[in-house]
Amino acid sequence: MSDSAIVIAEQTTPVEDAPARATAAANWLLGQQIIQPQARPDPLWRPSRYAPGPAATTAVRDTHDGNGPVGDGIDILDRRQVHDPGGNYTPPTCPTCTTQLDEDAHITLVQHWLDQTEPLATCENCTASALLGDWTGPWAIHVASIAVHFHNWPPLGDAFLLGLFEHLGPRCRLIQRRV
After folding, report:
1. How far is CA 10 from CA 43, 139, 172, in A?
2. What per-residue string of b and e applies to 128-158 under the rule 16 or more CB within 10 Å gives b?
3. Per residue in 29-54, pLDDT tens?
4. Cα–Cα–Cα angle for 45, 50, 53, nearest 5°?
5. What are phi and psi of 50, to 5 degrees?
6. What is the per-residue pLDDT across 51-93, written as a single tens digit (0 to 9) for each?
7. Average pLDDT of the chain to the nearest whole number
8. How many whole angstroms separate alpha carbon 25 and alpha carbon 151?
9. Which among 7, 78, 98, 142 could disulfide-bond with 93, CB atoms 3.0 to 4.6 Å apart, if both were Cys?
10. Backbone angles phi, psi at 10, to 5 degrees
């Protein structure tokens, strides 16, 4: 469906609260006219439930020239799953000293997170410990019960992201997905 996606994953929403929070986020995005229902859904050509709305350009940074569509579809997912950057994966960095987490250790911790609870990761350099979701980077992997995928959109604006974060929850992470 897409070559890239900007994924906003919120890491603290309990599974049972995800559908209601997803509906609230969708209603906010619809009310802002950032998204609109897909006019002609098609499982192959337009599989997303939502399309860019008439005010979609207000959600992106000034890098969009205003010509042509802002992006492709928008999906709002409300089930617990791994959200990954696709082909550009790199392990996240320590929130204290920015040392990169070992790739094998990261994948093991992500599997634990998906199967059970969010684990602590300890930095080999500074020995600081933090929840795995607090180790960040644009190409990292996160587990979340709610996420919004903007397919083939240009970078989203900071003000828009802050508004979306308010509707999704307190621990949102941005993932740059490339297929």
Report:
1. 26, 16, 4
2. eeebbbbbbbebbbbbbbbbbbbbbbbebbe
3. 999 999 999 988 777 777 899 999 99
4. 110
5. -120, 155
6. 999 999 999 987 656 666 788 899 999 999 999 999 889 999 9
7. 92
8. 17
9. 98
10. -105, 125
